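Renewal narrative, Specific Aim 1. Our central claim is that a sequence can be written position by position from structural information alone. The example that follows is taken directly from our test logs and has not been curated for this report. It begins with the C-alpha cells describing the chain, in the order in which they were read.
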C-alpha cells in the first residue's frame, strides 16, 4: 500500500500543471458530444469515469449546458484540481467531482446510475473493457450512450515493430483491433456507430507537455525511487511512440445500450 501511495504521489508530481493525462483532444470530445446531442435530453445525467484533472468533464459540462456531470477518479489530488478548474469556470454547480472507483461508482444526486451518457477517455484499460461493460451497462438508461477512447492496434501483426509489440503486450495485454472492440461491445449488449479515429494531435497534446515536464524533473536532485521509476516508464512509453507510433491508434467507441440484451 505504501509503495502504491508513493507511486501515485510520483504521478501527482509528474502531472502537476498538465491538462491531458492521456492522449486526448478537446475538439474531438466537443465534436462527438455534438454528434450525440440530438439523442440526449437537455438535462442529461452524464458520468465521466477516470476523469483525471477534468479535460473531458469540463468540455462535457460546457457543451451540454443543462447537464449534470459526475466526474469520478480514484486519485484525490486530480479531483481537487478538477474542482478548482470547474469553480473557476462557473461549472462547480453542475460538476460533482468525486473520488471513487469507476468499477463501483457512487450515485449522482442520490440516484444510482440511470445515466444518459457515460464518457471515459483513456481510462477504460485500468479496469478492463469486459469488466467496464458489465459494471457500466446497468448504470445506463435504456438507450443511454457509452463513449470511450481506447488504444488499439492499427497495423497487422506482421507489420508491427518488435519493440512496440513487446511494449504493448506488457503494458496493455488487452489491446485489440478496433473491429475486435466493436465485437466485444455487441456481445455485451450495445449497438455501435463506426469507431472514430482520434487525430495524432491527441497524442501530442499528451506527450509534448509531458516530455518537457519529464526533462525538467529528471534534472532534480533528491528524486524519490518511485519518481525515478515513473519518469523512466513514461520516457519508455514516449520512446515507443516516437519510433512506432503508427502501430497503434486511439479510437473512440460510441455505443448505445440495447433495450433488450442480445
Ligand atoms: C490515463 S488517465 C486519463 C485521465 C483523463 N481521462 C484524461 O484523458 O486526461 C487514467 C485515469 O484513470 C484513473 N483511474 C484508474 N483506475 C481508476 C478506477 N478504478 N476508478 C476511477 N479512476 C481510475 C487514474 O487515476 C487516471 O486519472
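The sequence written for that structure reads:
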Amino acid at each position: 500500500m505504501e509503495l502504491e501511495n508513493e507511486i501515485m504521489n510520483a504521478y501527482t508530481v509528474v502531472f502537476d500543471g498538465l491538462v491531458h493525462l492521456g492522449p486526448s483532444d478537446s475538439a474531438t470530445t466537443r465534436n462527438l458530444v455534438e454528434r450525440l446531442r440530438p439523442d440526449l435530453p437537455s438535462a442529461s445525467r452524464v458520468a465521466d469515469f477516470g476523469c483525471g484533472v477534468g479535460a473531458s468533464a469540463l468540455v462535457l459540462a460546457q457543451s451540454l449546458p443543462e447537464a449534470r456531470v459526475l466526474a469520478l477518479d480514484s486519485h484525490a489530488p486530480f479531483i481537487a484540481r478538477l474542482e478548482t478548474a470547474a469553480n473557476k469556470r462557473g461549472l462547480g454547480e453542475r460538476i460533482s467531482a468525486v473520488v471513487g472507483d469507476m468499477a463501483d461508482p457512487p450515485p449522482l444526486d442520490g440516484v444510482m446510475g440511470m445515466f444518459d451518457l457515460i464518457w471515459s477517455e483513456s481510462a477504460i484499460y485500468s479496469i478492463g473493457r469486459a469488466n467496464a461493460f458489465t459494471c457500466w451497462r446497468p448504470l445506463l438508461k435504456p438507450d443511454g450512450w457509452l463513449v470511450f477512447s481506447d488504444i488499439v492496434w492499427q497495423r497487422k501483426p506482421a507489420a508491427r515493430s518488435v519493440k512496440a509489440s513487446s511494449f504493448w503486450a506488457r503494458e496493455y495485454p488487452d489491446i485489440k483491433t478496433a473491429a475486435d472492440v466493436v465485437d466485444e461491445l455487441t456481445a455485451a449488449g450495445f449497438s455501435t456507430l463506426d469507431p472514430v479515429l482520434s487525430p495524432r494531435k491527441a497524442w501530442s497534446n499528451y506527450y509534448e507537455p509531458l516530455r518537457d515536464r519529464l526533462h525538467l524533473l529528471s534534472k532534480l536532485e533528491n528524486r524519490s525511487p518511485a519518481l525515478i521509476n515513473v519518469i523512466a516508464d513514461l520516457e519508455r512509453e514516449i520512446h515507443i511512440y516516437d519510433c512506432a507510433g503508427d502501430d497503434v491508434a486511439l479510437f473512440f467507441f460510441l455505443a448505445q445500450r440495447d433495450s433488450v440484451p442480445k
